[in-house]
Design a protein that fits this description.
single chain, alpha/beta, FAD/NAD(P)-binding domain, eight-stranded mixed β-sheet, 14 helices, 21 strands, 37% helix, globular
């Protein structure tokens, strides 16, 4: 077995793992990234693209803001169009003085790969059977297979950034790990279209179900509709999608939607999931390995970034000063933000979707909640604060 040595072994080569490796490199800390898929596969993943103010600031601070600032689309908030009621705007700039940014996760991943390649970073893709070992000792290591050969990486710490189905969380004993989960009785059918997007990020509530207009760049649109869990992509040709999407929008909004062919179409179920703790010995979980939130609140990628911020700060403190304060409080600190984001994502999901078999009472409670939100500046300020992203803890 070929053996190498690094300071931090990172399992998972998505945005969380690559960003952690990039930040550690800037601090003079060595890392090796292991990714089970190919680079082209990682770059083809279609994911979220709305960045919180804290994510924007962090990307700029670590030298990853140039392309984002050129190609991203700043947002002062998001609109909610509610059937039979006046539209209103969640004004993050008004209530917080902060903007958000539409900038796709694929573009962020491209930027991270470019930065790691320029720095000579070690990213091992198509690494099979990755497994962390001895993580509760002071000499953890990770094994993997590549092209039929077995390899071992000795390290000080292991960062599990390998997503919901990865090996990192599964390496924590069931007697230690506690999980919380809620599944929702619908999914999102999403399409990507090379058409000019609707100018505002807009959530639509309709008796036919939820819809969302989003964007990636001035000539790339992203649209979603709520769908049944048993829906199949093949049942939704472009014409049917556009007709249904427009039927869930106010008439004046539907008239402005530019339709066109889809270049990507997929259905995703919605779930809320949190695992505690996010540390076990010298193994740290970050991103989807530890938590999943429904995309309604645009929190998934942003939570991965905040995890990386907290974890990188702890590792940098250890290697610079020999102190472990931030590593020791990583799980508790990260989870406070995770639960806050899980809550607002759950709340928006409950507010903006039609639920099967809901009672008239439940419908009226939803209508009343929206009417209160629309009428109360305090409620709007609270939502704006959470939507733009709570600040990172010091």
């Amino acid at each position: 077995m070929a053996t190498t040595r690094t300071q931090v072994a990172i399992i998972g080569g998505g945005p969380a793992g690559l960003l952690l490796s990039h930040i550690l490199h800037r601090a003079g800390i060595e890392s090796i990234v292991l990714e089970r898929q190919s680079r082209s596969y990682v770059l083809e993943r279609i994911r979220a693209g709305v960045l919180e103010a804290g994510t924007i600031a962090l990307l700029r601070a670590v030298g990853l803001g140039d392309r984002m600032d050129r190609e991203g689309h700043p947002h002062d908030g998001a609109a909610i169009a509610w059937e039979g009621r006046p539209r209103f705007f969640i004004d993050t700039m008004k209530y917080t003085g902060k903007q958000m940014m539409a900038y796709g996760q694929t573009a962020i991943t491209e930027d991270l790969y470019a930065a790691r390649d320029a720095a000579g970073g070690t990213i091992i893709d198509q690494a099979a059977n990755v497994q962390p070992h001895d993580v509760i000792s002071d000499r953890p290591f990770v094994t993997y297979e590549k092209e039929g050969l077995s390899h071992r990486i000795d390290c000080d710490y292991v960062a599990g950034c390998d997503g919901f189905h990865g090996v990192s969380r599964a390496s924590i004993p069931a007697t230690v790990l506690k999980t919380y989960e809620k599944s929702y009785p619908f999914g999102w059918l999403g399409i990507m279209s090379p058409t000019p997007p609707y100018p505002d990020l807009c959530y639509c509530y309709s008796s036919r179900g939820f819809a969302l207009a989003s964007m990636r760049n001035p000539m790339l649109s992203r649209y979603y509709i709520q769908c049944d869990l048993d829906a199949e992509v093949e049942d939704w040709p472009d014409e049917r999608f556009w007709e249904e999407f427009k039927s869930r929008c106010p008439e004046d909004m539907a008239e402005k939607i530019v339709t066109g062919p889809s270049i990507e179409k997929s259905i995703a179920p919605l779930r809320s999931f949190v695992a505690e703790p996010m540390r076990y010995g010298r193994l740290f979980l970050a991103g989807d390995a530890a938590h999943i939130v429904p995309p309604t609140g645009a929190k998934g990628l942003n939570l991965a970034v905040s995890d990386v911020f907290y974890l990188s700060r702890g590792l940098i403190e250890f290697y610079r000063n020999g102190k472990t304060l931030y590593l020791d409080c990583y799980s508790d600190m990260a989870l406070r933000r995770v639960w806050a984001s899980a809550r607002i994502s759950w709340w928006l999901t409950m507010l903006l979707h039609r639920f099967p078999n809901e009672t008239p009472f439940e419908q009226q409670m939803r209508f009343n909640q929206f009417d209160y939100l629309q009428a109360s500046a305090h409620a709007q300020a609270s939502l704006a604060e959470q939507y733009v992203g709570l600040p990172f803890e010091a």
